[in-house]
Model the fold of this input.
Amino acid sequence: MSLRTSGPARAGQYLALLCYLVFLAFPFLWLISTAFKPARELGSLHPTWIPDSPTLENFRQAFDEQPLLRAAGNSLTVALSAALIAVVIATPMAYVMARQRSRLATAATGWVVVSQAFPFVLVIIPLFLVLKNLHLINSLLGLIMVYVVWSLPFALWMLVGYVRAVPAELEEAAAVDGAGRLRTLVSVTAPLLAPGIVATAMFAFITAWNEFFFALVLLKSPEKQTLPVILTHFLGAEGVADLGPLAAAAFLATIPSLVIFAIIQRRITGGMLAGAVKT
Done:
């Protein structure tokens, strides 16, 4: 019996994929459309996808009303630092968890799973008290530490899977050739893990870049607030949104994630193919 997908079934798969892509793209496309609409079109009872009179006024107002560049700098500092630190800590831990079959590795895996079940609200009070005792409230360093701890379980979970995908026979062959443990890890294992490390760092960065709750609670000074927190300032006292500037600022806030993903995606694919050839 042939395992090939029939024509109607394949057409159905493509149709389902197209519907899913439209579902994902709809909010972003509507955000772009709103960001370029003048005020009179934003209040129209008959909204349109394409602005009749595209304008950059919303972007000018957004920069005039809020310190977007400073907030973006804070977000970039926090997100990059948290992603790099989390990956540096998680990589050797993931290697040990994947290669060592012990009770400690099993317990660590259980901790990774259980830690993801805790909601933000449950940990924010003890976390606030700990950072207060360390004098790290209203500090970017304190926020970086929180993001590292919060993203570490997910980073471990991802990297353990990548490590297990690397055949142990390659390391054994290197050991037979006389390579030490460190040389084996650097010359054999690390290049094959590179796509996984990059992917993990990317997800950790995006998580920290978009995070709102911890930043809202832990950062009080306006000059230290991150971009997601600054976006809430476009809401009036009665909850009425300044829709045009808010859409423009939100659109600008999504650009770094899209650019990083577009740049890294090719390297991830290329690294996977290179790893497959080496394997």
